[in-house]
């Protein structure tokens, strides 16, 4: 175990050595910090309406100003970060688990099952994300769950395909035949011999998908397909600000800035991660 | 007999779906292996040696014939029934490094048979014992396969193969990819273990020196059939099938004083899709006669089992007039 820790430490040091990686880590840490300690950092209840204070510009009491209902935007942005981060992490994790399992089944299973699954994946992939979101929300109503389901449906086909292709390549590798000849069952072969050899690239890809998911959540909330008001979400804040952008632009800025900062941070982090772990791109 | 295989055929289907053609990778092979015996399968690349090994092991399903191991038909049995038998039959694959799972440490690789068969043992102790048995120190347990040399990786393969005290080891090209000194070490190790553990071995190779060194009996394969089978010594002394003679004459002789006549075979190995009529070797046989082109010779079923109409006797020279192509 201590070796895993030292490996992680080494990887982190290599990421921080890259300027882009360090910048990404800084932005991500800032965002996570804000989301985790939202309760302590927030200067007001995020959903408290106070009509007398509406449309106030940034000040000491309201760091980012207030919106059309007089809610403190700084607090709303912090709590919105919680939503964004938990949606991103949960739906990526769920997509990973489902994608890996389906990919292993498609790659290692019989040919007809593989063909069938690829057909379904391709069909799913052919829907534009927004169409999929609209259809789901029409069926089940807008909710956080809808956002998570959309993200899973969008991500799983790609993840499964990556795992499937590599599994297919390893299926006939000699170490797999060796395990079969010793009497290893399918579960053992998939878990001990194939999974460790196929999971690496997918983890990096998934980390690069986090900003995409944050954007999907914000986008769906902006369109009113995501979280229900008064729950704070960056997309919803952006929408509130959009209505009053001529007179009080800071509301839209308060909603948009965190989206930019976190997507940028996770993108930088993901790209550095890829560069650090892809031996072909290793220059130094 | 520990293993007996009878008329085993392996069929592959090749070509696009509208024109699938069956080809026989292994075309009716029979032989027995006695306890403690070393049996060698030799032949050119593509003669079906590895396919036959996979068929014996059950990695490749057979289309005809039967395989009996320790008194049980293993070609038709279920995976569940086969599993305990797999403890008794170990397989070593061609690529020494490639047959080791790249993300597992040597210690875990050697311990894997115990985990698969849920054998209660002090696994750490067993691993160390097995590693020392194949001449590797205990520190190797922490290494990954890519940190091993070919010879070391082969030793790990041997340790895995003998882990559960099998009765039979099938070794596919145990010396492939190793330099000569390491080849010798591996062969001596296998020979040593065989004597100590009373192992039967099937060695698949195209290296005839290896065969001469370790095998009690050998079978020569051509286009998926055994053309000659017998005691290694007598086959090396007096090959009876022309193909065996050609193969042996192509074997480099380390002693320069023992210069010998080289039999060169004209033409190429025929395609499995278009097997020659009659004796399948007739297209390349220097001693070919008219009967060979129409009648297929069958193995005579004796101890020295030969599939040839006109087997050679010791001292037979190459025919004077050789049709040159």
Q: What this model shows, in words?
A:
The complex is a heterodimer of chains A (284) and B (325). Chain A is 75% helix and 0% strand. By secondary structure, chain A is mainly alpha-helical. The longest helix of chain A has 37 residues. Chain A is elongated, with a radius of gyration of 22 Å. Chain B has a single domain, classed as Rossmann fold (3-Layer(aba) Sandwich), CATH 3.40.50.300. In chain B, a hairpin with a 6-residue loop joins strand 1 and strand 2. At the A-B interface, helix 8 and helix 9 of A face helix 2 and helix 3 of B.
* H and E string of chain A: HHHHHHHHHHH
- Give me the number of helical elements of chain B: 9
Give the biggest beta sheet of chain A. Answer: none
Number of domains of chain A: 1
| Low-confidence regions of chain B | none
**Main sheet of chain B?**
7 strands, mixed
CATH class call of chain B: Alpha Beta
> Can you say what the CATH homologous superfamily of chain B is?
P-loop containing nucleotide triphosphate hydrolases
Shape of chain A: elongated
Number of domains of chain B: 1
Classify the beta-strand content of chain B into a percent band. Answer: 15-25%
Low-confidence stretches of chain A: none
CATH class of chain A: Mainly Alpha
From the coordinates shown, what is the CATH architecture of chain A? Orthogonal Bundle
CA radius of gyration of chain B: 21 Å
Gyration radius of chain A, to the nearest Å?
22 Å
